[in-house]
Each structure stands twice: as structure tokens, then as C-alpha cells.
């Protein structure tokens, strides 16, 4: 369990997962360019210690941009991350956040109000040459439901518009948007806060897709197996992570609208400029001494977000869908598919039509409703290995029977393939499980048999020793990308 971002960076450093860059770098494009290049070679987390024009600040990016770093964050082996996440979720009621006094909160070491507020003094990067301005890309946006008081946190982009104003992107149906609409109908602003530079589990929980009354900080507590410490804000009625590097407090104004964007998004395409979102009027900034700004490069996968969402969407969908679908044993979002657009699930088949039951259970979850491609395979197939998945589709699927196309389904408005931007699209569902006789397969005695190397006298010895040892050679140069 990590107390804060800094303790996690210490672990990355100790595991050779952090590259510290001491040359002066410009937050205006240079940091974005460097991070993109590092993403392209599956490189390490980056800690920039000399940010041009921002003395006293450091900037970290690509923090969770690999399965190995996610594994360190979750403190569990890579092959156990998704089931462990789903299992820990069941205990979230035991880890409600706890409130600590202001003098115990590191994020309050420096407090800036009124004329001291200046967002331009924070090293917020211009990530891509055609972005509309500097963007906070991994800020944990916090609000409360005005009626129930339920707290929500999410990772949403915020564009710096000036010294004390941010542009906020609203996606229809998202929880912060619902909170805002409830306040707007009474002509009232919505209190909001943005936490930047949090411990890795709080960041992971910020992408969690759950019901509107689920507190993501309770989710974070369950995942880290210790309650998250939070502190009351200075100027708004919210609580924020006490160990965060930086907190921006403010209010979303009820009827004013600002130009926001464009921005290079997780799809690898530019999301168009928006003109119908409210501004956030900043009322206070607090931060730690010698603060570390955290950024996340958005763009064509794979990148930090695609790895992060591969864990979070997979685990949250698995945890919820298996409540209504027995035998659902695995789910994986492919890191090469942006957002939640592509997923593969495995079932231990128990009855005819089980694959279709699993499809509907997954699509009914908050994280699964935007899927464009959903594949169901047998539990003998590794859902993380697309070679196995493609083999299953190729040998266990009859397209005229096992492929279904749905129309007029919910879809993200950031999907570049959607036009017009109605929020409706389509999806493809593929049943790549081995069919039972009741589902149209041949009787058991007439089916072709799988090749079985277990019948060879050498197979067990090769597996026991490993191919390297068995052959007496080093195969690491060929096996490293497995």
C-alpha cells in the first residue's frame, strides 16, 4: 500500500521502472513528444526534474504505462491483477474514506487564494501541436450529488483558460454531468475539485466505472486495503485526497459557456472543439512543497491510459457481470483498443446459450455499455493472448450463426467513427466458444480432435525445465515480447 505518489515513485525507481530526466524540458510540446516516443517503445515512467519556466516543480508522466507498473501499484502478480481487483471490490464497504485535520494533510502545505491564484504557474503541458491549449489530463475530478450527497471521482480533461479558469469536458450520462444538471436547474453552481498527483490506487479508482452512488474513494480503499485519508477543501464543500500533490478548488458556473478544445484524445484522433460546456471558476489552489505535477499522454494506444483502462474496465466489468452470469471466469479489455471499445470474455460453459447470457451480462454493466466489439471464448483460451482469441474465432465460430450485429446502441461521442454525433452506434458480438450439440455442433464422436502434445514423452520434461534449459540456449531475445 502506497501513502502517496512519491512512495510509489520510490518503488518504481527501485525496480528500474523510472527514468529521471535532468535536462531542461519545455512543457510546451517537448514533454508530449518525449512521452509519445517512450510509449512507442514500451518505455519507463518519466520524471522530469527541470521543467522550463517552472522552478521548484517536477513533472511525472507514463506512471502506470505498463502491466509491470500496474502490477507494482496493485502489489499483485500481473496474471492475478484482474481477478484480485474484482475480489477486493467485494470488500469496499469496509474501507470508507476517513477525514483527517488540515494540519495532517500534505496537500495543504501551500494555500493560494484570491490574487495568488495563477494556473499558468503550474507546468500543465501542451501535449500535441494542435491542442487548443494546455490540458490537465490525469486530474481526479471530484463532485457530490446535490440530492444524495454521494461522492464521485473521475478522470476528465481540464483545459487551462487563464489564471483562474478551467474548461471542463462533459460527456452525456457521466456522473459529474448529472450532478451539474441537478444544480443548474436551480441556477446554482456545482462545487468541484481536481486532485493531481495522487497515489496510484486512487488514480486507478478514478477510472472505475460503477453505479452513480458508488464512492470511488471507497473503491480505492478496498483496492489498497486501507481507507483513503481525505481532507476538507478550503473554499468548497468537498473532501480531497490528503496526500495529493496539488488540489484545484472551484465551481462550475450554471449558465456560462466557454470554448474548450480541441484535444488529441485516447482514440489517436483529435476531439473537436466544444462550445457548450461550463467553465470552472477556480477559488483556491493548494499544493505540497516542491510539488510534482502528474500528466498522462493521450493518443493512439498503447499508452498509459490504455494500460490503465485495460485493468480497470476488465476488473469492474468482471466483478459486476459475474454476479448475474455464473461461469464467467475472465474478461480482458485489449490495450490496443481505445477506451472500452473492445473486450474478450471467457466462460466455463455450463448450459446451451451460455455465451449469449455472458454477452448480455457484460453489456448491462456501466463499463460494458460502450463496447463495439465483444468476443466470448471458452475458459481454455487466454483472453489476454490475441493469438489464442483469433484462433478461437477462426475455428469455433460460424459467422452466419455466431456473429451478431446490434444497431442504435450507446457509444462514446469521442469515437471518431461515429457520425453524426448522436451518441448512438452499433456493435459486433462474436460467440467463439466451442458449441454443444444442442447449439448446432456435431455429436462428440464426429468432431475433429485437437492436437495434444501431452501424448508425447518429451512434452512434460520440456515444460518442467523450460525450453531454454531443455535446449541449453538463451532464448530471451525471442521470448521477451511473449
Description of the molecule:
It is built from 14 helices and 25 strands. It folds into two domains: 5-294, Pnp Oxidase, Chain A (Roll), CATH 2.30.110; 304-435, 3-Layer(aba) Sandwich (UbiD C-terminal domain-like), CATH 3.40.1670. The longest helix has 18 residues, at 304-321. Helices cover 26% and strands 24% of the residues. Helix 4 (81-89) packs across helix 8, helix 6 (200-206) crosses helix 7 and helix 8 packs across helix 9 (354-363). The model has no long low-confidence stretch (mean pLDDT 91). It is α+β, with helices and mostly antiparallel strands. 49% of the residues are buried. A hairpin with a 6-residue loop joins strand 12 (229-232) and strand 13.
The CATH homologous superfamily of the largest domain is named Electron Transport, Fmn-binding Protein, Chain A
Percent of residues in β-strands: 15-25%
What is the molecular shape? globular
Structural class: alpha+beta
DSSP helix fraction? 25-40%
In total, the number of strands is: 25
Largest sheet: 9 strands, antiparallel
- The CATH class assignment of the largest domain is Mainly Beta
Mean pLDDT over the residues: 91
The domain count comes to: 2
Termini separation: 29 Å
Q: Which parts are unreliable, with pLDDT below 50 for 5 consecutive residues or more?
A: none
Q: What fold name stands as the CATH topology of the largest domain?
A: Pnp Oxidase, Chain A
Amino acid at each position: 500500500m502506497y501513502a502517496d505518489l512519491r512512495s510509489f515513485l520510490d518503488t518504481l525507481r527501485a525496480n528500474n521502472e523510472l527514468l529521471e530526466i535532468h535536462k531542461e524540458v519545455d512543457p510546451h510540446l517537448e514533454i508530449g513528444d518525449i512521452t509519445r516516443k517512450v510509449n512507442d517503445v514500451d518505455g519507463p515512467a518519466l520524471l522530469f526534474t527541470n521543467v522550463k519556466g517552472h522552478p521548484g516543480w517536477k513533472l511525472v508522466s507514463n506512471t502506470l504505462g505498463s502491466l509491470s507498473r500496474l502490477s507494482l501499484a496493485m502489489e499483485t502478480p500481473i496474471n492475478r491483477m484482474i481477478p484480485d481487483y474484482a475480489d477486493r471490490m467485494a470488500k469496499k464497504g469496509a474501507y470508507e474514506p476517513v477525514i483527517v485535520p488540515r494540519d495532517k494533510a500534505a496537500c495543504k502545505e501551500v494555500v493560494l487564494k484570491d490574487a495568488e491564484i495563477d494556473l499558468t504557474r503550474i507546468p500543465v503541458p501542451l501535449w500535441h501541436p494542435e491542442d487548443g491549449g494546455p490540458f490537465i489530463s490525469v486530474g481526479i475530478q471530484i463532485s457530490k450529488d446535490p440530492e444524495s450527497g454521494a461522492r464521485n471521482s473521475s478522470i476528465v480533461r481540464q483545459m487551462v483558460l487563464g489564471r483562474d479558469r478551467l474548461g471542463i469536458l462533459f460527456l452525456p450520462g457521466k456522473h459529474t454531468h448529472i450532478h451539474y444538471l441537478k444544480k443548474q436547474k436551480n441556477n446554482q453552481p456545482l462545487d468541484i475539485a481536481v486532485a493531481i498527483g495522487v497515489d496510484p490506487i486512487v488514480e486507478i479508482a478514478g477510472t472505475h466505472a460503477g453505479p452513480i452512488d458508488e464512492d470511488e474513494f471507497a473503491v480505492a480503499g478496498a483496492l489498497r486495503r486501507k481507507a483513503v485519508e481525505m481532507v476538507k477543501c478550503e473554499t468548497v464543500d468537498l473532501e480531497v485526497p490528503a496526500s495529493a500533490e496539488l488540489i484545484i478548488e472551484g465551481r462550475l458556473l450554471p449558465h456560462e459557456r466557454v470554448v474548450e478544445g480541441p484535444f488529441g484524445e485516447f482514440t489517436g484522433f483529435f476531439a473537436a472543439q466544444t462550445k457548450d460546456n461550463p467553465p470552472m471558476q477556480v477559488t483556491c489552489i493548494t499544493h505540497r512543497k516542491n510539488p510534482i505535477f502528474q500528466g498522462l499522454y493521450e493518443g493512439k494506444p498503447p499508452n498509459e491510459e490504455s494500460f490503465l483502462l485495460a485493468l480497470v474496465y476488465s476488473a469492474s466489468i468482471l466483478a459486476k457481470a459475474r454476479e448475474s452470469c455464473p461461469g464467467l471466469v475472465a474478461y480482458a479489455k485489449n490495450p490496443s483498443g481505445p477506451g472500452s471499445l473492445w473486450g474478450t470474455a471467457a466462460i466455463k460453459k455450463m448450459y446451451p446459450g451460455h455465451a449469449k447470457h455472458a454477452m448480455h451480462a457484460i453489456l448491462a454493466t456501466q463499463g460494458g455499455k460502450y463496447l463495439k466489439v465483444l468476443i466470448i471464448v471458452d475458459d481454455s483460451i487466454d483472453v489476454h493472448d490475441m493469438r489464442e482469441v483469433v484462433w478461437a474465432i477462426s475455428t469455433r465460430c460460424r459467422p452466419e450463426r455466431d456473429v451478431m450485429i446490434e444497431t442504435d446502441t450507446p457509444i462514446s461521442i469521442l469515437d471518431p467513427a461515429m457520425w453524426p454525433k448522436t451518441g448512438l452506434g452499433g456493435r459486433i458480438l462474436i460467440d467463439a466458444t466451442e458449441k454443444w450439440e444442442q447449439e448446432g455442433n456435431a455429436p462428440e464422436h464426429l468432431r475433429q480432435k485437437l492436437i495434444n502434445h501431452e501424448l508425447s514423452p518429451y512434452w512434460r520434461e520440456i515444460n518442467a525445465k523450460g525450453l531454454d534449459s531443455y535446449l541449453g540456449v538463451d532464448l530471451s531475445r525471442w521470448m521477451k515480447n511473449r
